[in-house]
Amino acid sequence: MRFSGDAGVPCYDADMGERRYIRPTALDRAFNTVLHLLTALGISVYGSRVLAVRGRKSGEWRTVPVNLLAHEGQRYLVAPRGETEWVRNLRVAGGGELRLGRHREPFRATEVADPDKPPVLGAYLDRWYFEVGRFFQGIGRDASPADLRRIAPSFPIFSIHFVPR
Predict the structure, then answer these.
(1) 3-class state of residue 162 by DSSP
(2) Rounded to 5 degrees, what angle do the CA atoms 91, 117, 36 make?
(3) What's the pLDDT band for 82 if we cut at 50, 70, 90?
(4) Which of 101, 96, 98 lies closest to 37 in space, CA to CA?
(5) CATH number of the domain that 73 lies in?
(6) DSSP secondary structure letters along 48-103
(7) Could you tell me the CA-to-CA distances from 52 to 31, 58, 96, 104, 121 in Å, in that order?
(8) What is the pTM assigned to this prediction?
(9) What's residue 165's pLDDT?
(10) Is residue 3 part of a domain?
(11) How far is CA 55 from the centre of its chain?
């Protein structure tokens, strides 16, 4: 695996080819730790949840804080850093849980096709640009549909379908 020491510079994994992944910095990890703790205590920070998904190799639960986007009656998870471990695990597992405090919502996930991503990316940027804008290759809240179509392949998105208990 090749890594870049600079935040925001894509890194590539040999078994993923040239898929985009942005490695978190120490500050990112600290922010995620605080966000994870708050969300685990039941405090949602601007829509945050803890994503729990089974590891694709270990089968163990893996958790990470995420921003749950509600857009046009549907819920989505967007991976602003690209091909993260949670993305790779979710592709294999096909679902997981979204957690907020003690509340658990099991779900099934469907990956969104590139042509369908631009409206979701636009809504995601509109809501969380202050937090994730640096990962979007210079694309901002005012991005054109053409710009969003151009970057869509670099950002995995999953449509979330909650499963009744």
Answers:
(1) strand
(2) 55
(3) very high
(4) 101
(5) 2.30.110.10
(6) EEEEEEE-TTT--EEEEEEEEEEETTEEEEE-TTBS-HHHHHHHHH-EEEEEETTE
(7) 18, 14, 6, 9, 22
(8) 0.86
(9) 74
(10) no
(11) 16
Amino acid at 114: D
Q: Using H for helix, E for strand and C for coil, what is the string for 121-155?
A: HHHHHHHHHHHHHHHCCCCCCCCCHHHHHHHHHHC
> In 3-state terms, what secondary structure has residue 40?
helix
> Does residue 124 lie within any of the structural domains?
yes
Does residue 14 lie in a domain region?
yes
- Residue 10, pLDDT > 80, answer no
- Structure-token pair, residue 165: 């208990």
Question: Please, what is the average pLDDT of the chain?
Answer: 89
Number of folded domains that form the chain: 1
Q: Residue 138's domain spans which residues?
A: 10-162
Q: Is residue 118 classed as helix, strand or coil in its secondary structure?
A: helix
Structure tokens at 101: 């405090």
Give the count of beta carbons closer than 10 Å to the beta carbon of residue 75.
18
153 part of a folded domain: yes
Enter the tokens of residue 155: 């950002």
What is the SS3 assignment for 37? helix
Which sign, positive or negative, has the C-alpha torsion 157, 21, 45, 64? positive
How is residue 82 written in tokens? Answer: 């690209």
